[in-house]
Amino acid sequence: MIALEDFALDGNAIGGLLIEVFGTEMTTAVGTCASCGAISQVAELAVYRPALGTVVRCRNCDAVLMTFVRIRGIICVDLEGLASLT
Amino acid sequence: MAGTAVRGRLTWQTATAGSVNDETATVRTIGLDVSDWPGHRAGQHVDIRLTADDGYQAERAYSIASAPGEPLAITVERLDDGEVSPYLTEELQPGDLLEVRGPIGGYFVWEPAFGGPLLLLAGGSGIVPLRAMLRCRRSAGSSVPARLLYSSRSWEDVIYRSELDDAADGVEVFHALTRSQPPGWAGYARRVDGQMLAEVAWPVAQGPLAYVCGPTSFVEAVASGLVGLGYPAGRIKTERFGATGQ
Amino acid sequence: MSPISRGFRRKRQEAPAGRVPPGQYVTTDFPVLSAGPTPHTALTNWTFSIQGGREPKSWTWEEFRALPAETLTTDIHCVTRWSKLDTTWEGVSLDVLLAAVEYDAQYVLAFCDGGYTTNLPMADLTGGRAWVAFGYGGGPLAPEHGGPARLLVPHLYFWKSAKWVRGLRLRDTDEPGFWEMYGYHMYGDPWLEQRYAGD
After folding, report:
1. What's the helix, strand, coil split of chain A in %, to 5?
2. What SS3 class is residue B125?
3. Closest Cβ–Cβ partner in A2, A48, A78 for C36
4. Which class for C187: exposed (0-12), middle (13-18), buried (19 or more C-beta within 10 A)?
């Protein structure tokens, strides 16, 4: 039985992508989950990369916090799941 | 945006493969020559990009194996069903070109000023960034107390074997060999568990700083185990490498 | 211009034209791609529901498994370029499920445990082209592949075959689901290589 969460990475793995998107190192940035309020450094968030895109989830409630999809060289960024990112 | 202005942090740079060194049957350390390398911190990684002659590109992240001040080097484990790691560990020759982006990472880093005592916990190839931290500690002449608990399948799978054997700089190294052990093995012969952590980990009262790196399931189990020993979550840094195979 | 890395090539070569759509390679694996952890809905809590028809309709696991089911063998095509040939499935045809509902909707949004959604035209779910599949390869569908049940719409790219499906919302307009919102094609015909919006 495969636990898909065992395939998850963390925010460290997308450090380069985050610099591309935000223009600066982001793994120590602190995110607040808009669903459950859990506060975490980006490095410690659960990161899933199913090849179609990158999905970053709250480690506490599994809600999607950030989604990144790169198509034809353009990165689409969705941060709706975060109440804040500082 | 800062990206285009900060050379060496955001942009892809051409790297020339330098020395290659086989650490184990499936693991190789590759020196990379990057002309404007800005230096790096222990624990950081680089993104590597390969381009085939039909334009196909593949990108992967690899932890930096060398200490700050040393030339850039990465250590790569060959994954059976991989696309990039078989190329890097078997095909790549000195003089070949690839692209490097980095150094990347501000969370999973250590330097002597961070103090300790330092507890490093490695599962498999998770040893790579921790080895950079130990080399950093050694080259800085730091006397921060340090312990490494390193879990591998067998002695033949232990990366940087002889370097870690040399305890001259005061690092205590504990090996856990989970699948097979050499004759006469006196070290741990099972997966890391709460009892092993209790025996190896610095007492919480000493204010230790822990770094855990390796497969995701390893990191989850070890981090939980440290929390169970009373380590504050803020004193445990984690880096998950996912899972290989099914 | 990136320098060429001598001797590096993509791992999988494209299959010759004909059996598989353009730009695909054939694999004998069944790659697991997931955007989240494995959901674990107990069968006692599982329902499949169709919303947006004249009246909502819902089946428990027992009621769902009591419906007539079919086995089928089909090829599947992932937008990440792998194709798997002659996969065998067991499931309930959407024709059977939709027959229990009065509707005039032309579009559907499938929704799933874990929050995933994907959109399809109603026409692509009917006429024997779509199933809610609970069996794969002669056994129960494994959780990592979408078990206990997933949508199976093999004539479209496989991201439309939503794992851990829990129901359909019938709609008058075609609204993008999860990947479609970020630029994947609203329809996704692999034979026309409709991977991304604008293809």
Report:
1. 20, 40, 40
2. helix
3. A48
4. middle
Number of domains making up chain B? 2
The alpha-carbon gap from A49 to the nearest alpha carbon of chain C, in Å, equals 7
Contacts of B246 (CB under 8 A, 6+ apart): A2, C32
| Residue B53 contacts C, CB cutoff 8 Å | yes
Determine the CATH number of domain C43-192.
3.90.420.10
Are residues B97 and B149 located together in one domain of the fold?
Answer: no
Supply the DSSP symbol for B87: I
Q: What is the pLDDT of residues B73-120, one digit of tens each?
A: 999 999 998 999 999 999 999 999 999 999 999 999 999 999 999 999
- Whether B5 has a pLDDT exceeding 50, the answer reads no
Cβ distance of B53 and C3 shorter than 8 Å: no
Residue of C nearest to A74 (CA): C183
Query: What number is the ipTM of this complex?
Result: 0.96
Domain boundary among B62, B84, B104: B104
> Which of C12, C32, C38 is the best mutation test for A, with the most CBs of A within 10 A?
C38
Closest residue to A69, CB basis, from C32, C33, C183:
C183
Could you tell me if B90 and B169 lie in one domain? no
Phi-psi category of residue C105: left, alpha or beta, with phi > 0 → left and psi -120 to 50 → alpha: beta
d(CA C97, CA C149): 14
Domain of residue B134, CATH code: 3.40.50.80
Q: How many angstroms separate the CA atoms of A64 and A59, rounded?
A: 10
Give the residue from A12, A14, A25 with the most B CB atoms within 10 Å of its CB, the best one to mutate: A12
Q: What is the pLDDT of residues B165-203, one digit of tens each?
A: 876 688 999 999 999 999 999 999 999 999 999 999 999
How far apart are the CA of C168 and the nearest CA of chain A, in angstroms?
21
Instruction: List the domain range (segments joined by +) for residue A55.
Output: 4-85
Chain C touching partners, 3 or more CB pairs below 8 A:
A, B
- The reply to whether B212 and B92 lie within a common domain is no
